[in-house]
Amino acid sequence: MFFLYALVYTLALFFAFPFELKKRPREVRLDWLKEKLGFIPAEKIKNGAVWVHAVSVGETLAAMPFINALKERGLDVIVSTITDTGQKVARERVGAANVIYLPFDLQIFFRTAIKDLNPSAFVLVETELWPGAISMMKKSSVPVFIVNGRISEKSFKNYFKVRFFMKMVLAGVSAICVQDETYAMRAMELGAPKERVRVTGNFKFDMRPRETPPPPWTKGLGSPVLVAGSTHKGEESLIASALKNLKPDFPSLKAIFAPRHPERTEEVEGVLKAEGFTLKRSSELSDYKGENLPDVVLVDTVGELFQVYSAADVAIVGGSFIPHGGQNPLEPAYWGKAIISGLHMENFPFMEELVKEGGAKCVPADALYRELKGLLMDEDLRVLMGKKAREFYKRRAGAVSKTLSIFLEEVFPTGGI
Q1: What does 189-210 look like in DSSP terms, one character per residue?
Q2: What is d(CA 231, CA 219) in angstroms, rounded to the nearest whole number?
């Protein structure tokens, strides 16, 4: 079965490779290709390091508390990503010498990478299941872990169609640490051995903003401020329309838009200007000295959103007004902000509980203007919602320490780190 997977993957790679290579800047293509083929530069080789794989920005940020905990224990860490934005964030957080691209998911490439790195363990973050990597790690006696695991309903339905294969893949994983009972049941229904599945909680409740202060321009926005975070195509026009209708009642209202994918910056800028807003990109405010700011600041940098949420009076969570499954609502919850999302928050099952506790509202797209107006008119309600969100966040911390205990017990059972 692994042979059939490798054949299908190779065929897909044959067609996708030219596009994947071309979209990289010319100056990084050779390095990208070497690492994708499993050749690790000498300066990045940390013999016996824990290899942590996080596909993109969200997974990288979620994994940082766990990565930091490993480093505090004196362990070297190598982080791999797939996306370029994930690379950028990982390099900023753990250093370029500790970051690589994940090789193509074929055993031949992982055999080379494993020989160079000699990892003590291979850790997959959240939803990443790579059969080629897992099978080669097992053959090389490298323990594999899934941490902060989640299996969305859509992924579960797809995996269930090939559950006989997923059972073989999951058999190569030493421990599967998932966020909640729902994900645990899904993992076991896909064939994961019951004794290897542990409910440890969600790393996102252990995330903290960077130690550096928020960008100085966030202090010059005044009040009220809406922060639309991790927005997707179609959502910016919806939120901009609501913002335009709110302006007559709230003349000092400012907004921050942070698209989920920074490469959409130009597109989003066009949408906002078409609605008549003046704006600046956040990269243009790097030397901000207190001058008046326009109606909108468009975040075109990676890794700043967590801190930017600190400026919000109301936080709008993107990826939720379209059938995407939602983006992380816990960053504004950390700051104690009133949270509004759309109805599509399937990737964050705890959102239902957060709404019940009064820390957030999930509203249909056609009700966004009305709900925003109500919150902007009622400061007491905004403060109460923010307090409830913050309490919800604090009460669920601790997933990293639980996961770390399981990891150390499996990899270093005698305590010999």
Answers
A1: HTT--GGGEEE---GGGG----
A2: 22
The whole-number average pLDDT for the span 343-359 is 95
Indicate the average pLDDT of the chain: 95
What angle (nearest 5°) sits at the alpha carbon of residue 25, between those of residues 22 and 29? 70
Work out the number of other CB atoms within 10 angstroms of the CB of residue 82. 18
CATH topology of domain 2-201+398-411: Rossmann fold (3.40.50)
pTM score, whole prediction: 0.85
User: What is the phi/psi pair of residue 77, to 5°?
Assistant: -130, 135
Q: Is the pLDDT of residue 153 over 80?
A: yes
Q: How far apart are CA 76 and CA 225, in angstroms?
A: 41
pLDDT tens digits, one per residue of 253-286: 999 999 999 999 999 999 999 999 999 999 999 8
CATH of 216-395, one of 3.30.450.20, 3.40.50.2000, 1.10.10.10, 3.30.160.340: 3.40.50.2000
- Percent of the residues in the chain that have a pLDDT greater than 90, as a whole number: 91
Residue among 84, 107, 102 nearest 10 (CA): 107
33-39: long-range contacts, CB 8 A cutoff, minimum separation 24 = 35/100, 35/101, 35/103, 36/101, 36/102, 36/103, 36/104, 36/109, 37/103, 37/104, 37/109, 37/112, 38/103, 38/104, 38/108, 38/109, 38/110, 38/111, 38/112, 38/113, 38/116, 39/112, 39/113, 39/116
Q: Are strands 175-178 and 279-281 parallel, antiparallel or unpaired?
A: unpaired
Backbone phi, psi, residue 27, to 5° = -75, -15
3-state SS string for 395-408: HCCCHHHHHHHHHH
Residues 6+ apart with CB under 8 A from 30: none
Helix (H, G, I), strand (E, B) or coil at 50: strand
Rounded-to-integer distance, Cα 403 and Cα 396, Å: 14
Give the helix/strand (H/E) hosting 298. strand 296-298
Q: For strand 254-259 and strand 296-298, is the pairing parallel, antiparallel, or unpaired?
A: parallel
Reading the block at residue 144, the tokens are 């594999």
Q: Are 159 and 190 in contact (CB under 8 A)?
A: yes
pLDDT value, residue 128: 79
